[in-house]
Amino acid sequence: MPEAAEVLTLLNSKKLLHTAYNFPIELKLNGTEITQESEDYDPRFILLSLAHVLSTEYEVQCGKFSQSGAISILFATLSSPCSEVFRKSRFFIALFLIYIPDFVLTDEITRLALFESASLPV
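Structure (tokenized):
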């Protein structure tokens, strides 16, 4: 089983950010509809892949996770009207927060860098 950092290195950061920016909020997680062909990652695939990264027994490096654009996907899914997607995204964000030590949350510079790396392109 690959480690969390190895999975993140296989993902294209720009593509992750673009996927988050264009996240189809009406898409259901277990839906059978096929998304239109695009340059973005399939939202269902990437969300479940990130869930696997966060739930592995390996330690997630918060900086690499944030800088990869993965955190943007989780924040984008919060806008979904699909209750299953919304609940899962909240759970995955909670998993991510487990990896952030208490001292990081009090460090203003680190916290701002985390929020900056999670921002979506305009």
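Residues 4-26+40-117 form one domain. The two ends are 36 Å apart (CA to CA).
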